Amino acid sequence: MSLTPDSTSEKQHIEQKEFASRQPTNLDAEGQSVDPAFAKKTVRKIDWNLIPILSALYCISLIDRTNVSVARLLGMAKELKLTVGERYSIITLIFFVPYIIFELPSNLIIRKLGPRNQLAAITVLWGSVMLGMGFVKTWEQLAVCRVLLGVLEAGFFEAGRRMAWFYLSSMVVSGFSNIMGWGIGQLSGKHGYLGWRWVFIVFGAITIGLGIISWFIIVDFPDRAKFLTDAERKYAVDRVNADRGDALPDGATAAKVLKHLADFKIWLFGLCFCFATTGSYAFAFFLPVILAGGGYDTKTSLLLSAPPYAAAAIYTAVVAHYSDKTRRRAPFIAGSAILCSVGLLILAYAKPLGVRYFGAFFTIMGCQSNVPGVLAYGSTNVLSHSKKAVNSAIIVGLGGVGGIMASTIFRQADYPKYIPGLWGTIGCQWATCIILVGLSFYFKRQNAKADRGEHVIEGNPSFRYTI
Questions:
Q1: How many CB atoms lie within 10 A of CB 221?
Q2: CATH number for the domain including 100?
Q3: What is the number of alpha carbons within 13 Å of residue 151 lying toward its C-beta?
Q4: How does pLDDT run across 195-229, given as a tens digit for each residue?
Q5: In the 8-state DSSP scheme, what is residue 412?
Q6: Which residues pair with 331 in a beta bridge?
Q7: How crowded is the C-beta side of 215, counted as CA atoms within 13 Å?
Q8: Which position among 67, 239, 373, 442 has the lowest Cβ density within 10 Å, counted as fewest Cβ atoms?
Q9: What predicted TM-score, i.e. pTM, was given to this entire model?
Q10: Contact between 283 and 304 (Cβ < 8 Å)
Q11: Do 408 and 93 form a contact (C-beta atoms < 8 A)?
């Protein structure tokens, strides 16, 4: 809604006063309306109840969707003939088709079912599918299991520092899952099963166990959090309302969803996420394969896949800290995209394998950091539960498109260097920078108009875009 200052300045002033009167004030720890010790205790209680279990579930979801790369090196490719044509690419990309399709419905119904019921149920179910993958006899059966995995993981929904800490914990664990996979693979021959089958069996059992545990300890939204007292619950809801104005649900109708889908910003956030996940999925699926194709043996290839993720976790934490401190998102996302591009060029054209491996550090640091970075960027620039649900669905859904792109541009015909795939990923990073420049100019202009009383952003007179 655009308004001219001459006809609406008085109306805008009244709207801002009315909106402010409905909002709680001084809810920060430094404010006078709430005891700082009480505020700190409440936030810490929420964090300790929320972050550990969600981090664990997110860890296992990333491991379960990407551990086919470990299984491939441990004998799956040979036994299921995955090197014939593009079979390996098919079983990696087919996961993302239902993952994209079911993302939006899952985001819209989670409020009705509640996070605890939905997340616990789908975690147990996808763990069962993962365990079943250890007993498949053909690559077609494996593909069917990957489809079911995509359907179920679509129901697992994903600012600032908390978003990054949530993600980087899963980044470290999923990176070191290749080492875990190598260790599990040493069970090869036990009960007549090869090592790659044990990878699926063991990780599937772990996933089922986590799903059962999560039902007992996971928390719902602030207004439903039973572990909080009435005073703490009120503070949690008021604090979110004061910050974003959307702690309470606004109801998702077909008209609202269509209106939200017409917002071009959501699609641009989604494209940035797509380009970030293209790199992150590509190296989850293909880094061990690239290292093995370069001359390292299977054990070394899997062990060397972990250190870049540890470096990426440290880098992500630093970027998140300074992004929060400066209240800027786009410059840090663009910087990480450039870092990723440098790493990709090293991987593509350096001669010594050790130098190419060094390039993998820059590549993984850049693309992995941008996964939580883009999520935070999109989340802080929309309001209302219904729009956040649509925004999350589009972003994560297009993240699935990134997975499909990663699976298709890294072709078996280009093994072992995958030069076309590396250049495709470089193009994604450059496209991200172009989008960020355009959005930054747009956000600055809209914020300036809102400051002058000419425009109301997202229906909230006090809201401003985060650049």
A1: 17
A2: 1.20.1250.20
A3: 10
A4: 999 999 999 999 999 999 988 887 766 666 777 77
A5: G
A6: none
A7: 13
A8: 442
A9: 0.76
A10: no
A11: yes
